[in-house]
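As a warm-up, study this chain.
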Amino acid sequence: MTTTATAPKAGKAPKAPKAPSSDRSRAENRLAFKLVAPAIALMLLVTAFPMLRALYLSLFSYSLTSPDDREFVGLANYATALSDGLFWRDTGNTVMIMIVTVIFELVIGFAFAMVMHKVIFARGVIRTSILIPYGVITVVSGFAWQFAFSNTNGFVNSWLPFVGDDFNWFAERNSSLIAIMASEIWKTTPFMSLLLLAGLAQVSEDMLEAAKVDGATWWQRLYKVILPNMRAAIMVAVLFRALDAYRIFDNIFVMTAGANGTESISFLTYRQVIEQFQLGIGSALSVLLFLSVLVVAFVIVKLFKVNLADARQEG
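Now compare it with the structure written out below.
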């Protein structure tokens, strides 16, 4: 009795078997789980109830001015928020602030990281001085930059003569957002540079030297060696800063108080809950903010396509 082997379908290459994880990798995963399990349990204990409570309240028409008139409305609060132009305007502000600040912080932070990585003399002093802005409380930073952009006693107008000495940065939306983003960039660029500095330390000097011997210019070494080997660190830096910028509140509260259409989603949620006592719609906005943060994180991870196991050179 003969058997006939079936040939694989044309156009479909057989899938390569998945490489089994090494004993070291499995041991590290088990150790990592044991180390983070207590922290995860504590975080769930602290955050699970407020999150579930917000989700519950978002299903009601509930105002603190009339707490006895709470009424179940289902998803009506979400429909109200998503159909309101104010929500989408504030979402646009939030996304714009996130994108602009992260781009500037990535470029400037990388330059600072290169300086801190290459400097030989007074390395500790230079690194400490670069990190000083990040140690300043955000509210203090916001007040300082509000003073700097003031048209009466600030110094920004004198540094930018083309805008005029009496130009009021906080008189309209675009210039107000520029001032807010400048404050955000100044405050958090050191954090970005610190994360990128850790990534630069992982770039092999042997690879850079080999590329230099092969005649590669500085720009070629940057694009062919440094940046590809820093992809994981860049992803972490961009992810952390993007999520932080997406939740921006302090600088807006201090510098404009949301005037001239400069609100973010976080500030809109604050106004609904704290100023207008609308717990139902405010809770719905907080849930939408949480979901949008998850979407932002998912998009960033997918864009970078970083395999952390490969980045750690696991076998």
